[in-house]
Q: What sequence folds into this?
C-alpha cells in the first residue's frame, strides 16, 4: 500500500516536471488547419493582399450592390447621410480639413482595408451577407467614386493590392512608436 | 434635436441654475423629519444581488443625445460623482463599434492560430485553469478629451464630458504570454491580430513584444465576470495603451509577420499632426489629470474645500500632480492616494480655503518618465486642430465670485471655430 502511494506521488512529480520543463500547461485543444478555417469566418486581409479570396467585381456591378446595401446610410453616391461620408474633398485631406470630411479616397491609406472592413462589418445591421464577388464589386465602385481607380479592370486579389491610395503619402509611423519598436515598418 | 437647439437648451439650463450646489447647508439645529423614520420600521430583507440606493439613481453614464439609439459610439463615466480610484463596473465608460454582443459562455471559444507551432482552441474554463494575474489598470479611449478641440470652449463642460472616457478597474486574467507559449511561436512572428465576437468583428494589430510584456486575456473585472459592455466573457487588457486596441469579446488571435492595417488603425485612431502628416500606431496614452471637485457646473461656497481629482499615464506611474489656484502662474504639489501603481489611476487631493474671489484652478500630472501635460497652445503646436484623438492638455476650471464653476479654458485666437464632434469619427462624438 505504502509503495503504491510512493509510485503515485513519483509519477505525479514526473508529470508536473514534464509539463513545467516544457513551460507549457497542456491546456487547450489543438486544431488542424481545416478546423482553424472553419472558425476564421471573417479572415483578415493584410495590406500586401494576403487573405484576399478568389472572385472579382466591376464598378457597374458595384453600383447595384451599393444602391441596395449602402446608399441608405452613406448617401446615393457616397456623399454621406445618417452615417459617414465615403467620398469627400479635398484630396487628400490637409490639416485644415474638417474631420467630418475624412472619407475613403482622401484619408484611407490602404485599398485592402476597404475589402477587409466591408466584408468584416458591413452592411452595418447585417454584416457578412455580401458574397466575395459583391464585396469586390462594391469596393471597385467606392474607389471609382473617389477617383482612385478608372474602372477599366475589375477588382480582384491581383488588382486590389496594387491600388495606390493618395493618403498613403501622408501616413507615417508615430515617432515615439518607432523609437520603442525600431523594427516596425508601415506597409 | 439639432446641435443649436441642444446648445440653447443647455445654456438656458445654465442660466436657470443647473449648477449643482454641493454644500446646501442645513438650517442649524434642525433635524430632518425623515431621519428617524427608518428606526421605526423593519428594513428590506436579504437579496441575492445587491443594488445601489434608490437615491443614487442619478449617478449614471453620460450619453450624448445624438448617440442614444446608435450601436456605435461612446458614453462617459460620471467622474465628478465617483470617489477613490476604482470605477464601478456598471459606470465604466463604453465604446462599441457594432453594439454589445450577448455571448453565451458555454459557446465561447478563443482560437490562437497563424504563425504558431500548435493552433489551439480554449474554452472559458480552459482560460481560468491557467495561473491568473490580478492588476489595476486604467482603460482610456483615444478620443478622451475630444471636447478640448472645441473653439471657443464649451461653457457647459463637466468633468465627465471633459475626461470621462477613462475608467479604472481591477482586471483578472491569464497573461497572453502564457497562451502564446502554449501555442508555440514560429520564427518570424512579429504581430498579433486579435478579433472580437461583435457584429463589427473588430480587429487591430498588436506588436508581439507588448503582448509578451504585460497584456492580459482578462475574464474578471472588479472581482466578478466582465460586464457585457466591457467584453464579456473575455477581453484583452493592454496596459497603458489606447482603449481601442484592447479588443473586447475576444474570439481569435492570428499571429503574423505584418500588421493588418485594419479600418480602426487607419481611417480612425490615426492622428493628424500640425504639419499635416498623419501618424499611425499612436498607442500609448500620455499623462492626464482632471480636477473632479470643484469642476464644471458645480457650485461651491466660501471656506474649506478638498480639491479632488484623478491622474494617470500610459508611460508608467504618476510621480506627482500639481495644482494651480491662480490660473497657472504658480503650482503646488497635491497629495496622492493610494501610492500610485503603474498604469493605474491615482486620486489627488489638495486642501484649500476659498476666499470667495474669482479664480481659475488647474491640475497637471507628471509621470515617472518625466512626461507632463501640455497647455492648449503647446498641444496644438504639435497636433492639428482637426485631429480627433489623444488630447491631454491641462483642463482649467473658472470659479466665479458666486461660487459657480465653469470651463476655464481659453478661446484660442486664430484657431478655426469648432463645435462638437458629431460625425467626426466614433469615440467621444457628441452633438
A:
Amino acid at each position: 500500500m505504502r509503495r503504491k502511494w510512493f509510485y503515485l506521488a513519483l509519477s505525479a512529480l514526473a508529470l508536473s516536471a514534464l509539463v513545467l520543463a516544457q513551460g507549457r500547461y497542456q491546456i487547450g485543444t489543438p486544431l488542424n488547419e481545416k478546423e482553424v478555417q472553419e472558425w476564421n469566418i471573417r479572415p483578415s486581409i493584410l495590406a500586401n493582399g494576403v487573405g484576399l479570396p478568389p472572385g472579382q467585381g466591376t464598378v457597374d456591378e458595384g453600383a447595384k450592390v451599393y444602391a441596395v446595401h449602402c446608399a441608405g446610410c452613406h448617401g446615393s453616391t457616397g456623399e454621406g447621410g445618417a452615417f459617414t461620408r465615403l467620398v469627400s474633398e479635398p484630396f487628400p485631406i490637409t490639416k485644415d480639413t474638417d474631420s467630418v470630411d475624412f472619407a475613403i479616397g482622401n484619408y484611407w491609406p490602404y485599398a485592402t482595408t476597404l475589402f477587409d472592413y466591408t466584408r468584416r462589418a458591413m452592411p452595418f445591421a447585417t454584416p457578412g451577407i455580401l458574397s466575395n464577388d459583391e464585396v469586390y464589386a462594391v469596393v471597385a465602385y467606392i474607389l471609382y467614386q473617389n477617383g482612385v481607380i478608372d474602372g477599366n479592370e475589375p477588382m480582384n486579389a491581383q488588382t486590389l493590392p496594387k491600388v495606390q491610395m493618395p493618403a498613403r503619402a501622408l501616413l507615417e509611423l508615430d515617432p515615439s512608436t518607432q523609437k520603442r519598436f525600431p523594427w516596425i515598418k508601415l506597409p | 434635436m439639432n446641435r443649436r437647439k441642444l446648445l440653447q437648451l443647455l445654456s438656458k439650463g445654465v442660466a436657470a441654475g443647473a449648477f449643482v450646489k454641493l454644500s446646501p447647508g442645513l438650517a442649524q439645529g434642525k433635524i430632518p423629519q425623515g431621519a428617524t423614520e427608518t428606526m421605526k420600521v423593519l428594513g428590506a430583507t436579504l437579496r441575492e444581488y445587491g443594488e445601489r440606493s434608490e437615491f443614487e439613481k442619478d449617478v449614471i453614464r453620460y450619453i450624448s443625445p445624438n448617440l442614444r439609439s446608435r450601436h456605435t459610439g461612446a458614453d462617459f463615466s460620471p467622474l465628478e460623482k465617483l470617489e477613490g480610484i476604482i470605477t464601478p463596473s456598471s459606470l465604466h465608460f463604453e465604446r462599441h463599434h457594432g453594439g454589445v454582443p450577448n455571448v453565451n459562455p458555454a459557446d465561447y471559444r478563443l482560437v490562437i492560430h497563424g504563425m504558431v507551432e500548435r493552433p489551439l482552441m480554449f474554452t472559458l474554463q480552459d482560460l481560468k485553469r491557467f495561473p491568473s494575474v490580478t492588476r489595476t489598470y486604467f482603460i482610456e479611449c483615444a478620443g478622451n478629451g475630444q471636447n478640448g478641440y472645441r473653439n471657443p470652449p464649451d461653457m457647459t463642460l463637466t468633468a465627465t464630458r471633459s475626461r470621462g472616457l477613462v475608467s479604472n478597474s481591477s482586471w483578472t486574467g491569464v497573461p497572453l504570454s502564457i497562451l502564446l507559449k502554449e501555442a508555440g511561436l514560429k520564427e518570424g512572428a512579429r504581430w498579433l491580430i486579435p478579433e472580437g465576437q461583435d457584429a463589427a468583428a473588430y480587429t487591430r494589430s498588436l506588436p508581439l513584444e507588448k503582448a509578451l510584456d504585460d497584456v492580459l486575456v482578462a475574464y474578471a473585472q472588479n472581482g466578478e465576470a466582465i460586464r457585457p459592455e466591457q467584453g464579456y466573457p473575455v477581453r484583452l487588457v493592454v496596459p497603458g495603451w489606447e482603449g481601442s486596441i484592447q479588443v473586447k469579446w475576444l474570439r481569435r488571435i492570428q499571429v503574423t509577420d505584418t500588421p493588418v492595417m485594419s479600418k480602426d488603425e487607419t481611417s480612425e485612431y490615426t492622428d493628424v499632426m500640425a504639419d499635416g502628416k498623419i501618424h499611425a500606431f499612436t498607442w500609448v496614452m500620455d499623462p492626464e489629470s482632471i480636477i473632479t471637485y470643484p469642476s464644471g457646473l458645480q457650485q461651491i461656497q466660501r471656506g474649506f474645500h478638498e480639491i479632488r481629482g484623478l491622474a494617470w499615464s500610459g508611460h508608467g506611474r504618476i510621480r506627482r500632480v500639481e495644482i494651480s489656484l491662480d490660473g497657472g502662474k504658480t503650482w503646488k504639489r497635491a497629495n496622492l492616494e493610494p501610492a500610485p501603481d503603474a498604469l493605474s489611476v491615482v486620486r489627488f487631493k489638495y486642501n484649500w480655503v476659498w476666499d470667495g474671489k474669482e479664480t481659475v484652478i488647474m491640475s497637471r500630472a507628471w509621470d515617472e518618465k518625466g512626461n507632463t501635460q501640455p497647455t492648449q497652445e503647446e498641444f496644438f503646436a504639435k497636433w492639428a486642430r482637426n485631429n480627433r484623438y489623444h488630447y491631454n492638455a491641462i483642463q482649467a476650471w473658472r470659479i466665479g465670485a458666486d461660487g459657480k464653476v465653469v470651463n476655464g479654458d481659453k478661446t484660442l485666437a486664430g484657431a478655426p471655430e469648432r463645435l462638437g464632434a458629431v460625425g467626426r469619427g466614433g469615440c467621444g462624438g457628441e452633438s
